[in-house]
Structure of Alpha-amylase:
Amino acid sequence: MKTPLHLALMLSAAMLLPAAPAPAATPASAGTTQAPSDVYYEIFVRSWYDSDGDGTGDLNGVTAKLDYLKSLGVDGIWLMPINPSPSYHGYDITDYEAINPQYGTMADFERLLREAHQRGIKVVLDLVINHTSDESPWFKAAQDPHSPYRHWYEWATPTTDLKAISATGGPLWHATPDGDHYLGVFVAQMPDLDYDTPAVRAEMIKVGRFWLDKGVDGFRLDAAQHIYDDRETDADNPVALKKNLAWWREFHQGIDVSNPHAWLVGEVARQNPDDLTPWMGALDAVFDFPLAIRLVDSAKEERDRDIGATLERMSAAYRAAAHGRYDNAPFLSNHDQERVMSQLANNPEHMRTAAAMLLTLPGHPFIYYGEELGMRGEKPDPQLREPMRWYRAGKGPGETTWEGWSAGDGPAVTVEAQQADPASLLNWYRMLIQWRKDIPALRDGVLHNWRDADLQVAAWELDDPHGDVLVLHNLSGKPQTVKLPAQRFRSLLKHSRPGTAVADGRLQLPAYGSAILH
C-alpha cells in the first residue's frame, strides 16, 4: 500500500522527467575533447560543500567538487564573496586581501586555483568595492574627522537632505553613534566608498591586481552601476553614468597591468536593454537582466516574447558600443532572485525549455548552483541561497547545514538521484552544455532573428565562420511543424526529443523539443 509520503516522493521524481527521454550528450571526438562551452557556474561557498564537518561550505569543498563541475561541462566558476565579513552572505567586506576564516586559508584558495586551472576551469571572484562593511578598519578610522580615511567615505554636511532616498529605495544617509551621517546605498552596515577620492581608486586597483597576481581570471563586479548612481534621482542621470563608466575604464586599465586578459562582468541591474549599451565599452560583459525576464516568461507562457528580434537589435548595438569587444552574459536567475523552478511554478517542461534557450545563446551563460537540479527558492534572501542538495537522504559527507531547506524539494532534487538517470534535469543540462562544445556557433555566432509564423517556436540564426546554424525551441506542449528557409538548414545537428525530423523542407519539432540545424 502506498502511503501519502510514498506518493509525494513518486510525484516529485516524476516531475523531473521529460515527456520522452532526452538522448544522452553526444561524446566529443578525440580532437574536440578540449572544446570550450563558455558556461560559468555561480557558487555560494557557504552552501556548496563542507570539507571539515562544521556545517559550513568552504574552499576545500569547492576543490573537492571540481570534478562534478567538470562533468557538468562548465568552463568557469564565479565565487560569491570569500573575504572576511561579519555577515553570512559576505557582501560587506572588512579585508579585501584576505580569506574569510570560515571558508579556509589563503593556501586553500591557492590550491583551489591550481586544481581548477588544471581542469581548464577559470575562477572569477565577486569584487564588492562599491561599499565596505561598517566594521571595516577603514570605516572605523573614518569616524575620526582628522583621519586620512575620513575622505574615503561620503559624509553629510549641514545642508544635506538626511531624508533622501537611495537608488535602491531605502534611506540614503545613516547615523553613527556620534551623530554624523554617512552615505550608504544599500543598508547602514554597508557604507559607500567615495570614488572621488584618488586614494580609494588607487587602493581598489591594488586590490584587483592582488587577486590577479594570485591567478584569478577576472571579477564579477557587484553593484557596478552604484559607484556613482547613489540617489533615487540618479537612475537616468547622465553625469552619474559618465562617472561610473570612467571609473570602470580606469579600473580595467589598472588591473590589465597584472593580466591583460582579465575578464570583467558587471552587475548592472537595469530592466531596459538599451540601458546596458553604454556599459559595453567599459566592461567586457554585463549580466543581461532584461533577457532573463524574457527567457523565463517565454518558457512560462509557452510563447516567444520576441527573444530573437530583441537579441539581434541589442547585439548589434552592444557590439557597436564595444567597438567589437562585446561579450554577452545571459542567465536565468542568481542569488538575489527567486530561483527559476519557483518562477516556473515547479513545471519541469518549462524549466527544460528555459535551460535550452539559455544554453543555445552565444556568449558566457551563467548557471546558479542547484539550478541544474531544479532546486526551488523564494525570498527572503537566505532561502535563495540554501545548501546544495547532494544526497537523497538530505545528509551525507559534505552536505552543509548552516541553513535548512524551505522549498519542499524531495529526494529527486539531488545530485545523487539525478547523476545516473539519463532522463534527469541534470543530464539535460549536461546534454545542452555538450552541444555548446560540439557547435562553435552556439558560443561565438552572430545572432539574427528568425521568425516562423508560429509564436510558440522561439528561433534564431547564428552566423559563424565554422558554419551557420538555426536554433529552434518548441515552447509548447504540442508538436510543431516549421517550414524551413529555401535550400538552407536541411541537416539536423542536435535535437533534444525523439521524433524530431527534417523532411520536405519542414522540421517536425516535438512538444518542448529543441533542434539545431545547419
Observations:
- The domain at 4-135+196-444 is CATH 3.20.20.80 (TIM Barrel).
